[in-house]
């Protein structure tokens, strides 16, 4: 997606393998303003995941959807996201 723009994008969570973290659930901490670590203190593999997530999130012009496993996103983070204006939908 680098260099392209879209009307809408759906970013699906992926497991980083070597980083041992899922990108969207990790990124939601930062979006919510509740990071467990500063970005500079993340391992290089997780920093790379955050850069890729940023690129994916910066492409849509109208609608951005992030999909993460709800078991990896705490209620505290969900509440903070709602306060920031995010709409959270649970899909079964």
Outline the structure in words.
The structure is a single chain. This protein is 36% helix and 16% strand. The chain has three helices and two strands. The protein has helices spanning 23-32, 44-57, 75-83; strands spanning 6-12, 60-67. Strands 1-2 form a two-stranded parallel sheet. It is globular, with a radius of gyration of 13 Å. The model has no long low-confidence stretch (mean pLDDT 89).
Summarize the structure.
Helices cover 36% and strands 16% of the residues. The chain has helices at residues 23-32, 44-57, 75-83, and strands spanning 6-12, 60-67. The chain has a two-stranded parallel ribbon with strand order 1-2.
Calculate the mean pLDDT score and round it. 89
Number of strands: 2
Structural class comes to alpha+beta
Helix content class: 25-40%
**Beta-strand level of the residues, as a percent range?**
15-25%
Give the H and E element order.
EHHEH
Quaternary organisation: single chain
Most strands sheet: 2 strands, parallel
**Strand order, biggest sheet?**
1-2
Q: Could you tell me the radius of gyration in angstroms?
A: 13 Å
Distance between the termini: 28 Å
Shape: globular
